[in-house]
């Protein structure tokens, strides 16, 4: 996992590595931001990608995903019409992508309204605070789902609120 500010800094440095990236819609701001094409990603070396703040392993995974997009092993244009479960199965089958990454993709890229990222430490801490659970170890993935079940079908907003709780309580 990575803090949101660190992720933004890495993404910004990553995009700046490329000269003419494509425009993609941002679900949160409803504006377009620039992002490189898979072909552009493959033109960069692992070392060049690492200069954006990525680990060597992450850079290799990103290049692997770019190859899959180019050879049509995966068609990202169909993801927005798939169920969350099907997206999760597909993406988690790709080396370097786990459930946390899928949850962040569903939340921030596809804008799905009912995602509870149970592997996110920030959400877990926010839930512990909100529901007054003193022992963080007791906030298991199953317990997070149980405690937030009544938030359906808007658990994504609830997750966002749990992150904000941490911002407020840190002051």
TrEMBL record:
Domain HhH-GPD: 1-167
Gene3D superfamilies linked to this entry: Hypothetical protein, domain 2
Top-level lineage group: Eukaryota
Keyword tags: DNA damage, DNA repair
A biological-process GO annotation: base-excision repair, AP site formation
Gene Ontology cellular component annotations, sorted alphabetically: nucleus; protein-DNA complex
The keyword GTP-binding appears for this protein: no
Molecular-function annotations in GO: alkylated DNA binding; DNA-3-methyladenine glycosylase activity; DNA-7-methylguanine glycosylase activity
Family: Belongs to the alkylbase DNA glycosidase AlkA family.
Protein name in UniProt: DNA glycosylase
Top-level taxonomy: Eukaryota, Fungi, Fungi incertae sedis, Mucoromycota, Mucoromycotina
């Amino acid at each position: 996992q990575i803090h949101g500010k660190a992720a933004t800094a890495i993404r910004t440095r990553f995009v700046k590595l490329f000269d003419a990236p494509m425009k993609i819609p941002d679900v949160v701001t409803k504006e377009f931001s620039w992002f490189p094409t898979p072909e552009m990603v493959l033109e960069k070396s692992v070392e060049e990608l690492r200069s954006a703040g990525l680990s060597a392993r992450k850079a290799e995974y990103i290049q692997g995903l770019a190859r899959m997009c180019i050879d049509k092993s995966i068609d990202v244009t169909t993801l927005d019409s798939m169920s969350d479960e099907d997206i999760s199965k597909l993406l988690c089958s790709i080396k370097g992508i786990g459930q946390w990454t899928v949850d962040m993709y569903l939340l921030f890229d596809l804008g799905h309204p009912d995602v509870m990222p149970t592997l996110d430490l920030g959400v877990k801490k926010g839930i512990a605070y909100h529901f007054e659970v003193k022992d963080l170890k007791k906030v298991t993935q199953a317990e997070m789902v149980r405690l937030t079940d009544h938030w359906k079908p808007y658990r994504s907003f609830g997750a966002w609120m749990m992150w904000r709780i941490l911002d407020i309580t840190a002051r």
